Amino acid sequence: MIPGVAADFSADALWVSAIKAVLIIVFLLTSVLFAIWFERKLVARMQLRPGPNWHGPFGLLQSLGDAMKLLLKEDVTVTNADRRVYLLAPMISVLCSLLVFAVIPFGPNATIPFTDFSTPLQLTDFPVAVLYVLACASIGVYGIVLGGWSSGSTYPLLGSVRSSAQVISYELAMGLSLVSVFIMAGSMSTSTIVESQTSIWWFVPLAPAFVIYIISMVGETNRLPFDLPEAEGELVGGYMTEYSSMKFAWFFLAEYIAMINVSAVATTLFLGGWRAPWPLSLINDGMFNTGWWPLLWFLAKVWLLMFFFVWVRGTLLRLRYDQFMVFGWKVLIPAGLVWVVVLAGFQYAGLVGITRTQMIVAIVVAAAVVLALLWLWPQKKEPEPPGGTGADGGFDAFAGGYPVPPLPGQSLPPSPRARRSVAPAEDAGAATATRVAPDAVDEDEETR
């Protein structure tokens, strides 16, 4: 048994690990096919249309038909591409996405049907398994970056650069959200973290960290409203623009497997893993946490998070890139840092014997001091916006010799056409006032 790991893999032979690995790959591939159908069907319902309903029952074979279409399409390679890197990039993305599920526990020990052999429903585990997950996600972005760079085209390169900046910023926020789980569970082993959630799931006491992780996982997987590396409206497909046939399918496959990966990590670290929800976990001494029930609970939680992905896609619009980066660096990362400091302070205070009442009083006093400092802090004057000033005091878009859009706080003067349309109206109003004035004077004289 590995020290610091709750699961026991000592009885697993090499053939058992090989079968588990094959089953994980089959599970991921079939889950991607189902996820594509699931997303199309759900978005169609949100948009009041039927969605896939022709091929197979309820349109379930539509995803399989699309996969076969990509497999049989003409494979085009760009002339100016770096051929080796161009072919290697999608393989890197797919391989890294497949590696994550090696440390995800599907359930506790289970007996293989028709045998007496019992094994954990997990391929492997080790004391720093969550760091392994973050490492796989970080390396996976190399496939996107190299794919955009090796294509020899401008828009794929822009998409790959966006992706690298996106992963750096949002992985920092994601890592900070996971630190709070490490503090509470006292381990980075996935099976040990699941065991630590026997009495309470970590998303309840660590709600701020859970919210930060949920937002970060959407940004990490390049999904709406954070799909800036693709951004079909401005980058024509982004880093995948120059890919076709199965090379494009590999990128597509990696994206959906990444969605399943981050959903499985959220389930394992925050939602109790394979454990049954309360109060079902209390029935008959936890009968719903034995047998094959844990596998069903795990899959239900993962697909609940997949529903959240689709719901967000069908609801929100894409952000601008500057808004996206400001949100990551100025909101999520500072919030994650503050939460880790507060949680570590609570843990340390509990170790040295400080009561909960004393901690609450200290937090209230500290919050009051911070608010007072923010209130008394001298406000900086807004700098003058760049650009010249027009004849009517508005923003001159041509001050630098070429047109630039107005920044926040600036306004363009009305166009010459608008001025010409306003002038006749003003003249007509003045003429009406001139005609009305004498009549008003006569009425006043008659009244007098």
UniProtKB/TrEMBL annotation:
It comes from the Bacteria. Its main location: membrane. It is a multi-pass membrane protein. The chain crosses the membrane at residues 13-38, 85-106, 126-146, 167-188, 200-219, 248-271, 291-312, 324-346, 358-377. It is found in: Cell membrane; Membrane. It catalyses: a quinone + NADH + 5 H(+)(in) = a quinol + NAD(+) + 4 H(+)(out). It is an enzyme of class 7 (translocase). Residues 421-439 have a biased composition (Low complexity). NDH-1 shuttles electrons from NADH, via FMN and iron-sulfur (Fe-S) centers, to quinones in the respiratory chain. The immediate electron acceptor for the enzyme in this species is believed to be ubiquinone. Couples the redox reaction to proton translocation (for every two electrons transferred, four hydrogen ions are translocated across the cytoplasmic membrane), and thus conserves the redox energy in a proton gradient. This subunit may bind ubiquinone. This is NADH-quinone oxidoreductase subunit H. The lineage of its organism: Bacteria, Bacillati, Actinomycetota, Actinomycetes, Micrococcales.
